[in-house]
From TrEMBL:
It holds the Pfam family Met_synt_B12. It comes from the Bacteria. This is Vitamin B12 dependent methionine synthase, activation domain. Coiled coil: none annotated. Transmembrane segments: none annotated. One of its GO terms (molecular function) is methionine synthase activity. Residues 140-208 form the AdoMet activation domain.
Amino acid sequence: MSSVIKNYTFSIEELQIQPGEIEKLLGFAPGKSPDPFPELIKEGLNEAPSLCAIKGGFIIFEQVEVDREKKTIRIKNQYFNPGKIIVSRLKNVTSAALFACTAGQEISIFTKKQTESGNELLAYVLDVIGSQIADKTVEKIQEKIAALVRESGMGITDAFSPGYCSWSVAEQQKLFSLLPAGFCGIQLSPSSLMHPIKSVSGITGIGTNCKQIGYQCEWCKDKDCIYGRIRRQKKR
């Protein structure tokens, strides 16, 4: 399989975001959120199609080297230090896809305007919707990568992003150095923050012995992760 660069645009309808998903991210059981959240979620999802420019893409790199002892991954001239957890999940990779996805800038601009207008609850809901759009776009990109490499008899790992599982956000500088400038309309600041804000970047491993097993929150020590908080609440 030769190196591949792919770019996609998606409609929000393709992401199939359900109100129950947003309720869960807000900390409520699906269908159990108190007023005024059901109407705010409905309003936010109705506004989202006109506010989003959803893009995602990836580049597949061959000859990836994983050093489990040093806990590093080499892609071309860059050495990544994602930590023990991610390195162990990528131990069987022979290639890797670096990806970037975004919901676009307008939803964040609209969210800020709602805050400035005193509509803090709607702004909060829109912020969560924007994050979910970016994450669901990653799922779509994962599907694209899996379909592409399946032709060569290979599978993929789960996607991992800087900022998770103790992987330093600063390493987005290395990641973006391997992507074309302005890939998917995303710019990286000197402090390693992506613009538009509702964007996600990361790595997906590829290999004959690779598979997706889902995310296990016990892997990660990030107490601020919204998904981890939800899963921890369920165990109480």
